[in-house]
Fold this sequence. Notes:
hydrolase; UPF0012_CS; C-N_Hydrolase; Nitrilase/N-carbamoyl-D-aminoacid amidohydrolase; six-stranded mixed sheet
Amino acid sequence: MRASLIQIAVDEGEPVETRRRRVSSLVREQAGADLVVLPELWTTGAFAYEDFGREAEPLDGPTHEAMAKAASDTGVWLHAGSIPERDPDGTLYNTSLVFSPAGELAAAYRKIHRFGFDEGEAVLMGAGRHPVTVRLPGTTLGVATCYDLRFPELFRRLVDAGAETLVVPAGWPERRRSHWTLLARARAVENQAFVLACGTAGTHAGVPQAGHSIVVDPWGEVLAEAGPGEQVLTVDFDPGRVAVTRDQFPALKDRVLGLEPPRR
């Protein structure tokens, strides 16, 4: 399987509609890939909190329209990163969109863990409640977003639902880049799965972004890693290695669930 992670640079001076057209062109340039992945909140920037409400759109809004057409024109599975979604009841969500090669919406995932510690995204957006997997030819995707990467329980739930390839779009800050790489590798090792983690470049509302999108195999080995700027990171990987790894080193079968509370 060939995956292309498009590490978009978010320039605050670039109008959102201009960026949609530019990103659509970047997706179309990935003809020959099986899966294309975009970052989190690339229309606004993950830290541009003041823009969330102004740029929020319905699930079937302009980003959905542009990305569905780009996916169908290119014939790829497209994880279109996430958008600030406005629900009909007015609630905002950080929502990821996954499109089939026919341009159909295959899945939408509302980010469960919101970043901000009672500020920013944590108060401006609602929390998703449901983990999401998507079946592709040859592998099942488990979908997570940015701050979710710090919460291993979500990834266990995805693996229990059949996930073999974990896809994590993000707007991760440069000052915590070491955590980004560490956590991506940890989620791969503990779940014996591929991790495709796609970040942004540029600066969001004064917050420099980490870039360094990364692809990790089920043993925790880094197959490819981007630099800090806008870049397309393309890697060929064999989804069949997940089953082989889990068979050769069957650690997942030794999980102990339903532990009693610690003794005091």
